[in-house]
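Hey Z.,

So I finally got round to the pyridoxal-5'-phosphate thing we talked about over coffee. Here's the setup:
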Amino acid sequence: MNTYQVNQEGYYGEFGGAYVPEILHGCITELQNAYRQVLDDPSFKEEFALLLRDYVGRPSPLYLARRLSERYGCKIYLKREDLNHTGAHKINNAIGQALLAKRMGKRRIIAETGAGQHGVAVATVCSLLGLECIVYMGKTDVERQHVNVERMKMLGATVTAVTSGNMTLKDAVNEAIRDWCCHPEDTYYVIGSTVGPHPYPDLVARLQSVISEEIRRQLLEHEGRDYPDYLMACIGGGSNAAGTIYHYLDDTRVNIVLAEAGGLGIETGQSAATINLGRMGVLHGSRTLVMQDADGQVLEPYSISAGLDYPGIGPMHANLAARHRATVLAVNDDEALRAAYELTRLEGIIPALESAHALGALPKLKFCPTDIVVLTVSGRGDKDIETYLAHMPNQSAS
Ligand SMILES: Cc1ncc(COP(=O)(O)O)c(C=O)c1O
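And the result:
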């Protein structure tokens, strides 16, 4: 079996597990017992696949970016998750978990969100399936991603602004967990990334693995071989990356490059580069790398990108880094902004700020002309337009 995958106990190497308060033990055990059974059920598979095709618009294209390829001296394909309904990869997971919640008899859905993309995806699916939806979002993120807040409200969700900590994703997760503790019976918590207690990292990775399943098929059509030389993705909690690499985890012909948010620079104290800066700890129910001080207090992360502004990382990715299966690069705000403008001017694609971090890793690598690179554009940049306009470069990137 695949050694980089989760084991029976919910661990990736020494990372993972389920560290939850007593009151949630029942919910987590129920979920652990149900998720594989539901995901493997042919009627679930059929319902999920139909919604991914007809509602989300999958498969998302694998686009050969010729001008970007020329710039970096290799062949770069973009996996276009930005073209999904609601504008990001998050919808794949939201649909899967909402269908799972329904089959588990839960009709009250809660979620956390950073950039708002996961919140919008969950609000969308809840409206589609007629479920109640409450979304927790840090007040800082409510302000910097206000278009997504309006979308969630229009979709009928209750958006609760969280004012603890630095009012970003970590604080929203804390609040969602608090809500779950108060309503363990009727509530399902749709986590938006490969984080949290087991089985969430594995559940989310499986639901997002449709990305690498499609890459295999599409590369075979384009290139006559079903694997690339490089897979690249940004990592907040790790879900678009997990989906991108899922079917290639054990294929060592494929180099995995992950981009985390360097913020103002990893040495500045204003960063969200958890794999570079973190130490082993427990965050939100999982044993993983955590940005923390000498006393084990969780440090406030910083990134220009709301979706990467998180002091933890999925246990799968912590393990991939610890075992040197993945190269993890910190990409700073300015590098991501430059990369976003470069893609916009070379290819006519405005990426999400999160995805721009994956693009910002391209100049840090040395490619051969024959190298085939697949880079996931996890979302579209509409939500980030104000930030982009505030950082408009003086001259065109092309
Ligand atoms: C477009 C986009 N990409 C990436 C991320 C980061 O999340 P993950 O690492 O789970 O893919 C987010 C999170 O909000 C996002 O909105």
